[in-house]
Amino acid sequence: MNTPTDIETTPAPSNFIREIIRDDLETNKYGGRVQTRFPPEPNGYLHIGHAKSINLNFGLAAEFGGQCNLRFDDTNPSKEETEYVDSIIADVRWLGGDWGDRLFYASDYFEQLYQWAVQLIRAGKAYVCDLSGDEVRRQRGTLTEPGQESPYRNRSIEENLNLFERMRAGEFADGARTLRAKIDMASPNLNLRDPIMYRILHAHHHRTGDKWCIYPMYDFAHGESDSIEKITHSICTLEFEDHRPLYDWYVEQLGIYHPQQIEFDRLNLTYTVLSKRKLLTLVQQGHVNGWDDPRMPTVSGLRRRGYTPEAIRNFCRRVGVSKTNGTTELGLLEYFLREDLNKRSLRAMAVLRPLRVVIDNYPDGQVEQMEAINNPEDASAGTRTVPFSKVLYIEQDDFREDPPKQYFRLSPGREVRLRYGYFITCTGVVKDEAGQVVEIHCSYDPATRGGNAPDGRKVKSTIHWVSAEHAVDAEVRLYDNLFKVEDPNAVPEGQDLTVNLNPNSLEVVQNAKLEPSLGGALPGARYQFERLGYFSADPDSAPEKLVFNRTVALRDTWAKIEKKTK
Ligand code: ATP
Ligand code: MG
């Protein structure tokens, strides 16, 4: 498995596809051309697995001065929608994919595909079959047994042409007939056992409307679409390796341009489901708030959560490609996220669970503007001022009335540093009837402004704060993994994926207090809340009601685990 701890020590991952392209350029196999494509089916939103494919296809094209097309494989009108098309276009663009004017649809090729089907019928290589889908499946045989030939296999070419034309004309009911390739019912490769090329489906297509009532199967459309677009390197995931002989068969029988298919491993991530079908179920059953819920591994969910395209691209590059499927640690993705956010995020102070602090010896009504560094990683980000006053909020977690041994933050009699502020010492606590501490009292040392004592005395901890009078309120949404087990797809007999859902994947904090500079944060703005993590303003956020998502906590949970196991 790829873990963040490997990162510094292992060499850059292999990219055997790059080597193939390099060799092809050297031998001038495609006249110096590199033409790739990203071929999503518009039946759901893109996820982080698709990002790997996008990064590969667009990345390799850019690296070798080639081009990458965006092509929708829209051959299944019953599951496809324009909403998905629109979201996919937005997501590929956001990830940095540039297809120029080469946005294509397999449905643009329906007429050509029909003509090619007719060509195969004429050559005696395809026939109309009257078996039902179930019967075709039953007669297909198994890995150890050959399939049975269809009783309709030897229909005359004339009859096939006539029936296929009438299929197109809408004379037959859904499922009544199919067009099948005439290959070999005894082939060890099940995909070559007279696969279905066309089926009857009286369904409205999001682009071609009601023009067609027969639709090509994905396997018949895909290779030919690649051929039409003169794809040089048709890069896809390993499960299509067994389909390659079929794609090859079609283009060879048709005598058309032959693209080269290269397979790589699908991305799998721990604690994550990467299947549009399963993600759709989560959306439909209301386990998440839509495809772009920040807990979803969709590109739109990651974006809403605060991920950057750069973090995702760096992750994809690091994951590389191989010829065997494996599972990558979610922590690796978060590693690249933190690494990128650390460089670009402005720092700010925010208190998620406020505890009131009154500084008794601080002058009533006085406000000081303390200078704070915007980003220690980027001097050009400059500084800002943060107001300091007599009543502040600190994090409830940063105070313990009865501190354990290793606890160095605020407690009665203890002195700590307020970041960019003063040293304060806790002098007393106020409790409610239930005995809960609701306010603490402190004194401050005016000589420690900015955070250092002229007499050189040290404090063991620095905590963050916001001025009560100046704070802006916010809702903050804290996320944990959507699934509580490493492999959410491992489901006990008779149950479904939802048994593995993490009931605590979302925690909403209602009354967080933020420093006033965050009052104008626009949706999408990213910050590091000091000591807490990286946060991003949600699209729900508005000036009168700020809403922030925690993109990722600051501390690398990995570093912790590592320490424990050392
Ligand atoms: P899903 O199983 O999630 O529905 P899919 O493969 O059916 O995915 P497509 O829309 O057909 O989804 O995929 C478009 C491209 O993205 C294909 O080339 C596919 O191989 C690739 N792809 C899909 N999932 C992954 C993944 N997890 N890792 C890498 N590439 C992927
Ligand atoms: Mg697919």
Calculate the terminal CA-CA distance, rounded to whole Å.
18 Å
| Ions and ligands | adenosine-5'-triphosphate, magnesium ion
- Mean pLDDT level: 95
Biggest sheet architecture: 7 strands, mixed
Query: How large is the count of helical segments?
Result: 13
Uncertain regions: pLDDT < 50 for 5+ in a row?
none
Question: Mind telling me the C-alpha Rg?
Answer: 31 Å
Strand order of the largest sheet: 10-23-24-25-21-22-11
Based on DSSP secondary structure assignment, what is the total number of beta strands? Answer: 25
What general form does the structure show? elongated
- Share of residues in helices: 25-40%
Helix and strand content put the structural class at: alpha/beta
* Percentage beta strand: 15-25%
What is the fold's blueprint, element by element?
Blueprint: H1 16-26, E1 35-38, H2 48-63, E2 67-72, H3 82-94, E3 103-105, H4 110-122, E4 126-129, H5 133-138, H6 157-169, E5 178-181, E6 196-200, E7 214-216, H7 218-228, E8 233-237, H8 244-254, E9 260-264, H9 276-284, H10 299-305, H11 309-319, H12 330-344, E10 346-348, E11 350-351, E12 354-359, E13 368-373, E14 383-388, E15 391-395, E16 415-418, E17 423-431, E18 437-444, E19 462-463, E20 466-467, E21 472-479, E22 506-514, E23 526-529, E24 533-537, E25 546-553, H13 557-565
Parallel strand pairs: 1-2, 2-3, 8-9, 10-23, 12-18, 16-19, 21-25
Antiparallel strand pairs: 4-5, 5-6, 6-7, 11-22, 12-15, 13-14, 15-20, 16-17, 17-18, 21-22, 23-24, 24-25
Helix pairs in contact: 2-11, 7-8, 11-12
This protein binds adenosine-5'-triphosphate and magnesium ion.
Adenosine-5'-triphosphate (ATP) binds at residues 39-41, 49-50, 52-53, 236-237, 266-267, 274-277.
